[in-house]
Amino acid sequence: MLEDKKKKKMNFQDGSMTKTLKELEKYYTDQFDIMSGEMDAAQKARTILDEERRLLINKQKLHQRQKMKEEIEELQSNLVRSDDHVHFKELDFQRALDNLR
Question: Three-state SS string across the chain, please?
């Protein structure tokens, strides 16, 4: 009889411990699931930001290339005009010399 009570008490305690362990396991599993979800969300946010940054940089590169192209074309045009100007000044000078002779 006394042994039966001890066995029942031990079985009750074992069941209580098992229940407590299962509750703790569930709690920590839930916590890890929450952390995993947060980490996934953070990674997605980083991926989106990286993609936006990449697109912005490409847009800026394209803008700078276009601006540089326009400036180079303007400089080339100015050089051609300057060369033409010098050429015609030389021709005028040559005519003036010829007229003086």
Answer: CHHHHHHHHHHHHHHHHHHHHHHHHHHHHHHHHHHHHHHHHHHHHHHHHHHHHHHHHHHHHHHHHHHHHHHHHHHHHHHHHHHHHHHHHHHHHHHHHHHHC
Question: How many angstroms separate the CA atoms of 48 and 66, rounded?
Answer: 27
pTM as predicted: 0.53
pLDDT tens sequence across 2-59: 676 666 666 656 667 788 889 999 999 999 999 999 999 999 999 999 999 999 999 9
Please identify which residue in the block is written with the tokens 């006394």.
2
Greatest alpha-carbon span in the chain: 147
